[in-house]
Amino acid sequence: QKEVEQNSGPLSVPEGAIASLNCTYSDRGSQSFFWYRQYSGKSPELIMSIYSNGDKEDGRFTAQLNKASQYVSLLIRDSQPSDSATYLCAVSRWGNNRLAFGKGNQVVVIP
Amino acid sequence: EAGVTQFPSHSVIEKGQTVTLRCDPISGHDNLYWYRRVMGKEIKFLLHFVKESKQDESGMPNNRFLAERTGGTYSTLKVQPAELEDSGVYFCASSQGGRGASTEAFFGQGTRLTVV
């Protein structure tokens, strides 16, 4: 079983729509959850971090965490062409800073 | 403020040769990490420095890989001798804080290593 699963294939969304990305993790001891955005050939860029159950909003991004279900998601509202990128889910434990990554989801926003 | 800097951005070497990758973390960041992404796979942890000390090197594939962090500043990752399966993108990341604190990590652009 992979530590972090991002199973969805490439996601195409029309401009202005909501993009929804999902991630599950296997380690119940995970306490920190991150979403990174990576443009082709560029560094992964941290866009959201979440540590507690519930929702966290930052601009057009909302992260949702459900530790009981071992599930974290990312919503991108009013999607823009500049949001076209690969989104990486990453988790870590307290006291252990190593990140476990999912394979990523490619998002394509269609103008 | 400068971000995490990695050098070189690309490296093509022959099997059996040696390659050294360098990472300059964000100034003041005690934590420095190396990760690797092999084609088609997820980014995998290699090791973690806190200042000049190796905190966790459980992700290092084998003893052909040697990481150092001189004086707690920049770090190098040497692969000797390189094998075909070492090809991939090697990322360096850094974060503030000490052991026990889960802090946000900032990544460099990576070094794309191709072993032929």
User: Which structural class is indicated by helix and strand composition of chain A?
Assistant: mainly beta
Tally of separate helices of chain A: 0
What are the low-pLDDT stretches of chain A, counting only 5+ consecutive residues below 50?
A: none
Order of helices and strands of chain B: EEEEEEEEEEE
End-to-end gap of chain B? 37 Å
What is the radius of gyration of chain B computed over CA atoms, rounded to a whole number of angstroms? 13 Å
Q: Name the overall outline of chain A.
A: globular
Low-confidence stretches of chain B: none
The N- to C-terminal Cα distance of chain A equals 37 Å
| Number of DSSP E strands of chain A | 11
Number of DSSP E strands of chain B: 11
Q: Which assembly state applies to the chains in this document?
A: heterodimer
The coarse overall form of chain B would be: globular
- Proportion of β residues of chain A? over 45%
- Kindly report the average pLDDT value of chain A: 93
Written overview of the protein:
The complex is a heterodimer of chains A (111) and B (116). In chain A, strand 4 and strand 5 form a beta hairpin. Chain A is built from no helices and eleven strands. The model of chain A has no long low-confidence stretch (mean pLDDT 93). Chain A is globular and about 40 Å long. With 111 residues, chain A is mainly beta. Chain B has 116 residues and is mainly β. Chain B contains no helices and eleven strands. Chain B starts with a strand and ends with a strand. The chains are: A mainly beta (111), B mainly beta (116). Chain A binds chain B through residues 2, 4, 31-32, 34, 36, 41-46, 49, 51, 88, 90, 92-104, and chain B through 3-4, 31, 33, 35, 41-45, 48, 55-56, 59, 91, 93, 95, 99-110.
